[in-house]
Amino acid sequence: MKASLALLLLLSWPALARPYYLGLNTGWVRNVSAAVRNGWVADSGCRMPRVAVRSDLYFQPGGEGHADPQISAFIAAGATPCCFLYNSQTRPVSLPDGTSLPSLEPAGLLEPVFVSGGDTPRADDAINPANPWAVFVHGVVERYDGDGLADAPGSPVVRWFSLWNEPDWLKWPERPRDRATLPTWPGVGYDRLARLLYVSRQAARLASSQSRLGPQLCFPESLRFLLADSRHPAGPSIDFVDYHAYGGDGSDANVYLNDGLVPVAEAMRAVLREFGLRRDLLCSETGVSGLLAEGRIQRAAVPKTQLVGAALELISAQWYAPFDPSWKSMGLIADVRLLPADGQGWQPRDGYYAYLTLARLLGEALAKGAPIEELSIGSAARAYRIELGADEAIVAWAFDPDGRAERVAAVNLPLRPETNYSRYAWDYALKGQPETTVRCSREGYATTLGIDPIYLLSGEPRTMEPATRPAAPAPPPWRISATGADPQWPAALAFDGDSDTHWVGGWKQPRPWWRIDFLDGPVTASAVRLKVGRLPEVRLVIEASDDGEIWRAVSAPFGSLAYDLQTVPLTARVTSSHWRVTYEKQVEDNVALYEIVIGERSPRERP
Asked: What CATH number is given for 2-343 in this structure?
């Protein structure tokens, strides 16, 4: 009887309301200062930012990329950071065929965790320096445990630590099939990842019993392999499971369909139940492109992700990413690579303001564990009720499985009869006040929904100081174009003063080209400096034009054998407003141009 009752409770879990933290990844670009980047995330209303802590940078406090400034800034803003710990070093692995590949598996992982010679600490034991991963995990947890010993400046406190990032990644639709092969650690299997989880737990516990650790995984199959490991079964080593969820381009597909937020959570929980375990879940990456339907799909997807994450009783669902460049342009802020260090000219997408609206209306309540439940209003729409003490919030939207921004649904929402509700839209953060006040009849509230969630809150209307959209930056005195530019790597990146960024395009074009037209007068040059990468089989030529229509070669054909800036002499001193780099034959892949310098013109010029 006791066993049956325990099974019943397990199958019905999670049952209790718990704090939910609005989540957002952090990001890095070299041109914008860390303080500005951190401010964008903190000002969004994010409650759980995902902070990267890389093993080599951790040992350089005060250096660029160290996590201290981010963590301190987010905690000062009232957030609860989650750190993900990962390795930057590689070790060579010899494969059976005699070849050698680099592996991200930390060196020394099989060494004892403690100097006493074992993996279990004795009295007054210390971490074994021959196990660098153990040293790293122990050091990070100790640095952020707030106990006054070896703390970061100000003694910030972090409790949540995610381990690694996508160690089991495989190209969709592949899935892990063999526990003997860990996809991103060549030559080893899941037993080595299970060892990493065990070492992490032992090292972290020596620093703080309050730390909470979880593996970052892509697939439930991987979780099953780890829980079934014969030497280090992962169950005792983990407090939560961190997963990634990308369900498709529809604002609801990303939540409910394919490998979206809900299906992957259900699959992970099913695996945990197989082993009789209850563990929290955290989704540290999920998102939709900001380029779909002029940003309308992303705008709708952002609050849906957070509300459903709360209803799933996740710890957090952390939107990927805060800004572009990012995978599939999922940033809530448009590409920031051409901005100055102070971030002036940054362009938040509508999704950023949709996030801020949700944060201002419901972020605090969700972080305090406000109960949330899904309401049944038919298959064409979704709705959730959040208890706000004596009041309530109803959030509803038309169901969007495929990215059709014009979808609508006529519904009847079950509001409290004879009660006033304030209605808010996605742009409340920009307007600072509700759209209107509605009063529910005994028959409910009949309305037509679009794919953007609406918020109906009983009680006193909410107001806020409206956010102001930043002015768009003034255009530079040039125009850049190219064949087949990839939105992720636009042509402007080849003239931005940074030789590590680049344009990518020209996919299988007969003669791909990159072009710049100076709008404020001609430029004179005797040579051009550029970086194009290794193209041993392809010849390039510099061209100029008097009218932008008829082009002439102004250099001899040349190639490139190194990822370095090279100087290309021109056949004569050239004065022109129109310049072009042309690849003289079709290439089988994309081409890339990292940087070009023509005459004395600076790519950082602005009017």
From this structure: 3.20.20.80
